[in-house]
Design a protein that fits this description.
Length: about 210
């Protein structure tokens, strides 16, 4: 049996799709097909969560910590709401420094999230972590494109033997109409299918 823990924001929660449950159950099916074992998943998505909120939860919520500790596979979605806040502040004040500050904080928080997970996993069974980079739901805003790309570059810098980043930005670019839900912000069922496929493409090392 494969234990899969999904932690993150509204993308992990599956917001934007009424019945399909987002990318988590889809990715779970990919895991099952690839590994040939039953997959049990914990979906711990918090709509509206910033990277600091996710770090706080994995620091202090014992249920979440136990799920991460026991997981063979972990997925993380974080940072989107931090950049949304920055975009709102930029619209009000036209100061690009809000993006810069948001990315610095996100990088610190994401590093903290990984550090806690590594502490929880120390000396335990092999595991893998997959994180999802950010797409830009507002392609008409050039500043947003620039800063989403910068955020994603920071995310890729964390990659190691256990951690790979699924490239969602390129998959969604130019296909926003097709892949976003009616709120024009969260993915629809097809969009979540793309996220699951990109996670699957990252492979299953060191588990397989």
């Amino acid at each position: 049996m494969i234990q899969y823990a999904a932690i993150g924001d509204s993308l992990t929660a599956g917001v934007g799709e009424l019945f399909g449950g987002g990318f988590v159950p889809r990715y779970g099916r990919f895991i099952q097909e690839r590994m040939g074992q039953q997959v049990v998943y914990d979906k711990m998505g918090m709509s509206g969560a910033r990277s600091a909120d996710i770090l706080s939860v994995i620091n202090y919520d014992n249920k979440v910590r136990a799920a991460l500790q026991n997981a063979d596979i972990i997925t993380i979605t974080a940072g989107g709401n931090d950049l949304v806040d920055a975009a709102k502040a930029y619209t009000a004040h036209q100061d690009e420094d809000v993006f810069r500050q948001a990315i610095v904080k996100c990088r610190q928080n994401f590093g903290g999230i990984l550090s806690v997970i590594k502490q929880l996993k120390f000396g335990r069974k092999p595991y893998l972590i997959r994180a999802v980079d950010l797409y830009n739901p507002s392609p008409s805003m050039p500043e947003a494109n620039l800063w989403v790309k910068r955020f994603n570059r920071h995310l890729v810098s964390f990659e190691d033997a256990n951690l790979k980043i699924a490239n969602i930005f390129n998959s969604f670019q130019g296909r926003e109409r097709e892949l976003l839900s009616l709120d024009r912000f969260h993915p629809n069922g097809r969009g979540y299918g793309v996220i699951a496929e990109e996670l699957h493409k990252q492979g299953y090392g060191p588990l397989a």
